[in-house]
Amino acid sequence: MKLPTAPRLSPVWLLSGLLAAGCTGKIGGSASGPSTGTPSGGGGTTGIASGSGTGGAGSTTATGAGSTTGITGSGGATFTGPRDPGRVTVRRLNRAEYDNTVHDLLGTAQTPGATTFPDDAPQLGFDNNGDLQTLSPEQLTLYQTAAESLAAEAMTVGSAERSKIVTCDLTTGTACAQTLINNFGLLAFRRPLTTTEVGNYVTLMATAAKAGATSDEQFRTVLEAFLQSPNFLFRPEFDSSVTSMTPHLLSPYETASRLSYAIYRSMPDQTLFAAAAAGTLAQVSDIQTQVQRMLADPKGVFAQTFASQWLGLGAVTTQSFDSTLFPEFNASLASSMGGEVLDFFNEFLQQNEPVSQLLTANFSYIDKNLASLYGISAPTGTGLTRTTLSNPQRAGGLLTMAGVLSVTSYPVRTSVVKRGAWVLSQLLCAPVPAPPPNIPPFPTGAITAGTQKEILAMHRTEPACAACHDSMDNIGIAMENYDAVGAYRTMENGIAIDASGAFEGGIADPSGVPGAPFTGAVQLAATVAADPRFTPCVAQNALGYALGRTLTTSDAPYLADITTAPQGATIGVRDVLMNVVASDVFRMRRGDPTMATTTTGGM
Q: Mean pLDDT, the chain, as a whole number?
């Protein structure tokens, strides 16, 4: 006997089910306006260099270096209030979020996201950006297959998963079924179910019963339906008036979801659900208290996930290097490279150390692999250990870490261009434009005849190349004392390395002298740390990640608030995150009169 199952998903059914309750986000398109910008090769948000931006009629105008760096132009309806919190595209659970959510929801060890779902690796921005997500018919089939497998496991008699879900006797009738549907639905949809939704699932069980299904089989069908619902697969947010441009606070459950997927990359925990039920997530202090708690929880993965994607470290453990040229590189070293950067950033988040010191700190997390590469004494014990660095070659924070240096290199050599572009895009939110068509290729065949600085100087004689390469090359060249895997060197092809460079365009160095030169990565790091674009760029990336959308010019006033340090203090990394979740742009949304509405229902 074949049991009735939830209807096979289709994009139309998904969208109509969300719009039925007043959710006005779009699937697969930006709800905040078209996104522009050039992929940087790393993660994080990218866009246009510093300048002024205007957020629509009547909105705050922000002008000045760094004020709207990397923010795209706004689109759609015109906002007429003093500030526009914008809207967020309906976000689909990405692979990691899906696996984390079904683990917390069901207690399963299955990982269908990691093993079968399409890759969510970002081409521009972060992997949770709803503006960039897609959904194919093949993916819908994979969701159905995963739902069937997960539901079958969850209803296995005697299993821990079943005991977690089935808390009453299903054979007693409708009352038990309604209780279970309400309890599971609250967790699966991250909000209480409506009366209509409960009725729909009770009807589904009745249909299965008529087909001869046992009570357990009936509820398994319900679980399959929940796990295929757009309310589970997506993170919808609703407007009571879909056409109103008046900003309103998110519901307590929507706020809980924003927090949980930003910090846990999973559904809310019981504490967040309890706070939402009690209505205690409306105040800034309530939200910040929750974030403080969540960051101390082992489930909190904000530091690791955000830093990895912002800095483009996803390739650290998958990249390869020529074993003849770099015999010291192996999988163990690659793991240490990535771990150093993430542990380093996590300390800044946990201890609220100043943002600027991300590029000037005299400590890092070292193990025997990195100690050998860096030419320093290995710490005692195993694993990465917080180590004060007396070696001046590693005093540039992120810029002198092997993880960063390796992901901005090629398998056989360093890349001045990639490193310079990385600094501009990831640290200053000033990505270089895409190369013009028909430019001559970089003369890699001649690289053995001289240093990259000499080769690039010839490359810039081409007018089409000079405009961008003048800025990139003069930055990346300062990192040339580190080879492709991050080992320090003074010679390249038998020639002494000249690691002197300068920012083009009059950017001040730490002493305030416009356009002053720097030599080496440590001086470059100090210059970037003092650049007025650096802290706003960190904040911009943190806000874009937390919101899960592309930023627009209307976000500029909020960014100015987020980068404001506590009175008499230097702004720290945790301050940035606390300011993000306290901001109205994180806590609020609005409708859009250009969005169509529908009354079609669904589960």
A: 83
Q: Is 567 exposed, middle or buried (0-12, 13-18, 19+ CB in 10 A)?
A: exposed
DSSP E strand boundaries for 508-561: 518-519
β-pair partners for 519: 500
Given a contact cutoff of 8 angstroms between Cβ atoms, the answer to whether 530 and 509 are in contact is yes
Q: State the DSSP code for 426.
A: I
Determine contact, residues 527/510, Cβ cutoff 8 Å.
Answer: yes
Residue 235 near residue 188 (C-beta atoms within 8 A): no
Nearest to 60 by CA among 81, 31, 32, 74: 81
* 424 three-class SS: helix
Contact between 122 and 129 under an 8 Å Cβ cutoff? The reply is yes
Mean predicted confidence (pLDDT) in 124-145: 91
91-92 and 61-62: which strand pairing?
unpaired
Q: Considering the entire predicted model, what is its pTM?
A: 0.85
Residue 358: Cβ-neighbour burial (10 angstroms; 0-12, 13-18, 19+): buried
Degrees, nearest 5: CA angle 401-361-453: 45
DSSP state of 251: P
Continuous segment of H or E residues that includes residue 248? strand 248-249
In which band, very low, low, confident or very high, does the pLDDT at 592 lie, cut at 50, 70 and 90? confident
Could you tell me the residue ranges of all domains in the chain?
A: 11-25+93-235
pLDDT at 57: 28
Cα separation values, 162 from 334, 407, 537, 553, Å? 41, 45, 47, 49
Helix or strand holding residue 61 (H, E): strand 61-62
In the chain, helix, strand, coil percent, each to 5?
50, 5, 45
DSSP string, 109-136: ---HHHHHSPP---SSS-TT-GGG----
Cβ atoms of 492 and 455 closer than 8 Å: no
Please state, in angstroms and rounded to a whole number, the distance separating the CA atoms of residues 495 and 386.
35
Full DSSP string of 547-578 = HTS--BGGGHHHHHHHTPPPTTSPPBHHHHHH
Check residue 89 and give its pLDDT: 87
Burial class (CB in 10 A: 0-12, 13-18, 19+), 49: buried
Q: Which two tokens stand for residue 79?
A: 């906002």
Residue with tokens 């009807």: 203
Tell me, letter by letter, the H, E, C secondary structure of 347-409. Answer: HHHHHCCEHHHHHCCCEEEECHHHHHHHCCCCCCCCCCEEEECCCHHHCCHHHHCHHHHHHCE
pLDDT tens digits along 195-230: 999 999 999 999 999 999 999 999 999 999 999 999
| Mean local confidence (pLDDT), 451-480 | 66
Q: From residue 560, give the alpha-carbon distance in Å to each of 54, 415, 552, 579.
A: 14, 34, 14, 10
Distance CA 145, CA 141 (A): 6
